[in-house]
Amino acid sequence: MSDHPADHPADHPPEPALGLHLEPLEGGWSGRTFLGTVAGERTVVRVYPPEDGDAAARDAAVLRLGRRVLAGCAPVPEVLETRAGDPDGGAPGLLLTQHLPGVRGDLLLPRLDEPALAAAGRVLGEVVARLAGAVQPRAGRFVDEQLTLASWEPPWDAGSLVDLVAELVPRLDLVAADRDAVLGLAGDADDVLQDAAREGPGAVLVHGDLNAKNLLLATTEDDRVLVTGVLDWEFAHAGSPWADLGNLLREQRSPAYVEAVLDTVAVRRGVAADLALDLARAADLVAVVELATRRGSNPVSDAAHERLLVMARARDLHAC
């Protein structure tokens, strides 16, 4: 359920392990996530290549951190069991987590009326605000079970957003004028983010893929909307306080929904709603550019390429 399809997704479930019966989970991350049943209980099983070693333990630690940060706000799957990969024996690593109820947001949100969209926006704004308040020592990627932060690898170690986008631009399938316009957008985004960085935390916990596909929602008889699960933390890292907000608002642009998200974040984070939106669009630019470099590989990347073209030609981060 990620924007980042794997290079080598699994075509079939792995051999049953730990007494599990496995079947592919609809929308599952990169073809490596399965619905497992053991003793009549449903679980979610993430399978890792043997060479990934302790990746399951690292992701389990991220989930536990997410559960602490979002406690009382939104459920995060509980870790039930992990198994390290064995490159010598060829056994995959496994991460077993709780199966949470609810409907994927990308399936539910289009069916909601404006009051319900506003209700959804308020509860998801709380999730974003809580994550943006989880300050981290510095920006970087989590590399082990202790959640040690390591520096980004090239090109992600570029000194600024402009430098990073400049590294990615040659990979884009764009004419020269459009590439120049993308670099201009990066300059605009960098200005917005640099101004904010002088007044706020440098790095916070970032889910890294906080979009409707990775959120479980439910409606109630009294017209409330509940978040019943925040899923797929594989891309979690320490980074911009505005990255998750940008991801959340990239595709879902209903005014009722957007205004509710922004109003909630504005109150919780002490920033004007219009500035929060500017920061969100600026922080999300690099994700859109990176996805666009993979145009033709999947529908998400194709959509990002089209979105980037619209923004570049309008010279407007908000264009859609």
Give a quick precis of the structure:
With 320 residues, the protein is an alpha+beta fold.
Defining key terms:
AGP_Transferase, about 325 residues, 9 helices, Aminoglycoside_PTrfase, Kinase-like_dom_sf, five-stranded antiparallel β-sheet, about 40% helix, globular, disordered N terminus, Aminoglycoside 3'-phosphotransferase, Chain: A, domain 2, about 15% strand
Report on this structure.
The protein has nine helices and twelve strands. With 320 residues, it is of the alpha+beta class. The strands form three sheets. The chain has a five-stranded antiparallel β-sheet with strand order 1-2-3-5-4, with helices on one face. It folds into two domains: 21-98, Phosphorylase Kinase, domain 1 (2-Layer Sandwich), CATH 3.30.200; 103-314, Aminoglycoside phosphotransferase (APH), C-terminal lobe (Aminoglycoside 3'-phosphotransferase, Chain: A, domain 2). A hairpin with an 8-residue loop joins β1 and β2. It has helices spanning 55-69, 105-108, 114-132, 161-168, 176-197, 243-251, 255-269, 273-292, 299-314, and strands spanning 21-24, 33-38, 41-48, 79-83, 93-98, 103-104, 140-142, 149-150, 204-206, 215-219, 225-230, 237-239. Pfam families: APH. Residues 22-263 form the Aminoglycoside phosphotransferase domain.
Could you say what the CATH topology of the largest domain is called?
Aminoglycoside 3'-phosphotransferase, Chain: A, domain 2
Q: What's the helix-strand series?
A: EEEHEEEHHEEHHEEEEHHHH
Rounded average pLDDT: 90
Main sheet makeup: 5 strands, antiparallel
Named CATH architecture of the largest domain: Alpha-Beta Complex
Number of domains: 2
Give the low-confidence spans.
1-12
Instruction: Round the Cα radius of gyration to an integer and report it.
Output: 20 Å
Estimate the strand proportion.
15-25%
Q: Which shape, going by the Cα principal axes?
A: globular
How are the strands ordered across the major sheet? 1-2-3-5-4
Q: Using DSSP, what is the number of strands?
A: 12
Instruction: Write out the CATH superfamily name of the largest domain.
Output: Aminoglycoside phosphotransferase (APH), C-terminal lobe
Helix content: 40-55%
